[in-house]
Design goal:
Elements (H helix, E strand, L loop, with lengths): L1 H8 L14 H12 L1 H7 L1 H8 L3 H23 L8 H9 L1 H38 L5 H17 L2 H29 L12 H4 L4 H11 L16 H31 L4 H7 L4 H9 L2 H36 L17 H20 L4 H34 L6 H24 L1 H5 L3 H28 L1 H6 L7
Helix pairs in contact: 2-9, 2-12, 2-15, 3-15, 4-11, 4-13, 5-11, 5-12, 5-17, 5-18, 6-7, 6-17, 7-8, 7-15, 7-16, 7-17, 7-20, 8-15, 8-16, 9-12, 9-15, 11-18, 14-15, 15-16, 17-18, 17-20
Length: about 475
Amino acid sequence: MSVTAREESTPSVAATLRSGSLGTADIAFFVISAAAPLTVMAGVAPLAVLLGGIGAPAGYLIAGITLAVFAVGFTTMSRHIRSGGAFYAYITRGLGRPVGIGAALLALIGYNGMEIGVYGLLGSAGRDTAKALFGVDVPWLPIALAGLLLIGYGGYRSIEFGAKVLGVLLVAETGILVLLAGGVLVKGGAHGLSGASFAPGHVLVSGTAVVLAFAFAAFTGFESTVIYRREARDPERTVPRATYVAVAFLGLFYAFCVWIVIQAFGNDEVIAAAAKDPGGLFFSAITSYVGGWAADLMHVFIVTSIIASLLAFHNAINRYALALAEEGVLAKSLGTVHPRHRSPYTAGIAQTVLGLVVVVGFWAAGADPYNQLLLWVNTPGMIGLFALQLLAAIAVPCYFRKVRHDEGTLRTVVAPTVAAVLLATAIGLVITHIDLFTGASSTVNTLLIVIAPAVFVAGLGLAWWLRRERPAVYAEFAAEPAE
């Protein structure tokens, strides 16, 4: 403790992220919170049921298994790479600096897109909650701006503070879903409990492709465990454990909750109920099986679920920006760490300002907070993160071919190769069904699809420029930190 205090009070010593701060549970809280389980279930799962039928729960299990296979090679590589750059560091080691720099820009756009768009969801959900609980109409912009300030403050504080906040919020949002599950299980559902959702006849249908597209999107951000490596306790063990915990929890919990809501209405009635009011499916179920007070709580916890997701993504973005500033790719000022909180606070301020510009810009244009700010900004971010996962899966066997190691072939070749094929399939499913995510015109959808590859190509151009104009920065990009 005395050493930490002396370091913080000595101006000549630059502050760094606080190592040894996060355990497995802390990192898992960040990752699971980023996925926003309650928001995904109440807001998106009804569409999966409507379009994919009662076999929808199996789609979430399939997505979870796919990402668990990806995690095998991903976490194996995490034992060999200590960089704070996560995705781009892994990709650089396996596929070379140009691809790695392209991945770095793609990561910035991907994570920023996933976070900033969600301020539209916060404004929309906050407005709906105020209307449902108090009967008042509140403009969405003040809610979104309040969220920006709150998230900015959370990122400014220490990582331990963020972990504690996310722990509380995650317990609340999962707790309300467990409460719904308890009510349905105790009462035996609408017509008794059924396992038909997992029967091949209901899983192997054309609508399952749509379910898988939604399901893969529901896991977005799970791989950010490695971003916290520098702050983790015993990262060689903590990071892989947190990754597997996050994937297992999300896959099983999603499948269970979707199955529960199907039981609440019955196999024959749930699709009609979802078609009539998809946004109210979970609220109707919890009102019937638990009570109106629980539906009111669900409204509140959806808002806190969104806040938790925003804070988790904000912390991940800040650490990516910090790593790139330390690499010399971004402005050096973004690499400043707060001397007391040990947070990358200048990167956090910059990210908050960027969010403010985008949110206010959409508001000034008269855009809808959900249909446009959320969906149009989130979608290219989601595609970008899927592309990063694919590149990382391809990078694993390439990396282990270059270095001496004692890892098994299953971990270094088989699992990442299988994951790459499955992830490429997932990307194809999302792009093929992008209209279901955006509800936009074909022109808008085409634009949203090309953003991620365009950013990656721009990154390749940046790599060419750095190699020519700043060779020292290029040569040291994603290098291992000194012991």
